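Hi, here's the filled form for the chain we discussed.

Project: internal
Contact: R.S.
Residues: 108
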Amino acid sequence: MKAPCEYIVKYFLPALRAVVAEGLIECYGLSETEVAKVMGLSQPAVSYYRKAKRGTKMYRIVKENRELHPLIAKLTEVLYSGDKEGARRVLKEICCLARDIGLIPLRE
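And the returned structure, exactly as it came back:
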């Protein structure tokens, strides 16, 4: 049995990172190196997210979810602005919403 936090780390968070990295590149014109710095990742990790080598299991689900979309856009904006505490708050909101709408199972 997997704990919800294990599911978040293995599936949900990588997909969310891929969507946010894509948003920073497309909406703000950042390079992979700049995205890596903003998100606290390595440039190769950003490249892997962009090439769908990480976060693929839930990528489409996260990207296309209408309920998550406004919060993901807000997270992207907050990260771009450099507000780390704001990013933590929005990330918590995203995780709670994902749990509430069933994207993160409480039990397996």
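Let me know if anything looks off before we file it.
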